[in-house]
Amino acid sequence: MGESVETIEDIENSAQAIRRILVVDDSRVQRKIVSASLRRWGFSVTEADSAANALESCRTEPPDLVLSDWMMPGMTGLEFCREFRALPREDYGYFILLTSKSEKEEIARGLDAGADDFLTKPVNAAELRARIKAGDRILRMERELIDKNRLIASTLGELQKLYDSLDSDLIEARKLQQSLVSDRYRDLGVAEASLLLRSSGHVGGDLVGMFPVGQSRIGLYGIDVSGHGISSALMTARLAGYLSANAPDQNVALFRTAEGAYGMRPPADTIAALNRLILDEMDTEHYFTMVLADVDLARGEVILAQAGHPHPAVQRRNGKICMVGRGGLPVGLLRDAEYDQVKFHMAPGERLLIHSDGIVECADTQGRLLGDDGLETIMRDMRHTHGPAFLEALIWTLTEYAGVEDFKDDVSAVLLEFKPPLAGH
């Protein structure tokens, strides 16, 4: 072929993709001519005198590049190319057809069969080197892409493991947060209290609860911490400790009386104390809204303070609903914030609903919020549904309204219902 000796390093750099070449030709002379040049250039060369033998060689030791004659007895180079492409392999094999054909239709048939390039016989050494260089560039890019995809797959696998671990931790965190509301229903004698807490994600920033104050009084609260997720959930856990039913000495809403019993501070004073605690003792960007109520069960008297939380709803025996509370600033924004409270009376058969904004700000598919009017309609429609059943029905109604089962915000509520008078009383 009359070419100068050139090593594989002259063909390309050390990142050579083409190292093993299979030469297929029924002419022994043509095979030897081409193979001799390839070996001088540093390639590992295998020869085959037929397409059938070439296929067997490809199965045992897949070549990086195939140089195959087109016209051979038995299986042609075109048919061999199709069979070569059908072989399973991890990477791509480059295929060059050696042919005397130059018609466009024949070239199109070769490309359709899976050939990457063509060389006209007799083979010119310079052209052969150029075609191998081109094939090597393509294979290197293809193998670099495979390596990068493997790296991406490996990285995604590691990320999936981390996600699974985090997901498992969040599931446990959800259980722990739900355990903060351990008492979902309590029969208080003259009244019943039911609690609802449903996070929009694994964990959320809503919290509801109740705690006893002596024999005939209870404290009720609803809290909504700004944001969502882990940091908001940690904040609710801290606040649950400040309003603990199990550790009254740590409950900021309670104080010891001279007789050694526990009394309840005015709700407005307790919220102001929490505001100072948040600003003085917690290094956080979070704030929260809140409703805190002191309920005298024996007299049906409720003293309630509101701090940015939605107005609680009171439903009278005749079904009429009124919103109570005076608004107020959220807790944790201004150091000198002051909070007002209201006092009202509840009779047998009446109920109080303290709820988060996840209810009244629930949006339908058109973006329309439920609002106070929508909540009033729900309460009127379900005036004969009580306790946990009412809260479950409320969730189902919100699901139908929103058109989705997963709400964008946390949903929580405290329902206090004074039992109706007995017949004949």
Looking at this protein, list some descriptive labels.
six-stranded antiparallel beta sheet, rod-shaped, alpha+beta, single chain, 425 residues
Describe the structure.
The structure is a single chain. With 425 residues, the protein is of the alpha+beta class. The strands form four sheets. The protein has a six-stranded antiparallel beta sheet. The protein has a five-stranded parallel beta sheet with strand order 2-1-3-4-5, sandwiched between helices. A five-stranded antiparallel beta sheet has the order 8-9-12-13-16. The protein is rod-shaped and about 115 Å long.
What's the overall geometry? rod-shaped
- Widest β-sheet, arrangement of strands: 6-7-18-17-14-15
According to DSSP, the number of beta strands is 18
Q: Assess the beta-strand content as a share of residues.
A: 15-25%
Task: Give the terminus-to-terminus CA distance.
Answer: 119 Å
Oligomer: single chain
The unreliable regions are: 1-6, 8-14
In this structure, how is the largest beta sheet organized?
Answer: 6 strands, antiparallel
Radius of gyration: 40 Å
Q: What's the order of the H and E elements?
A: HEHEHEHEHEHEEEEHEEHEEEEEEHHHE
Percentage of helical residues? 25-40%
Question: What is the overall pLDDT average?
Answer: 87
Structural class: alpha+beta
Helix count equals 11
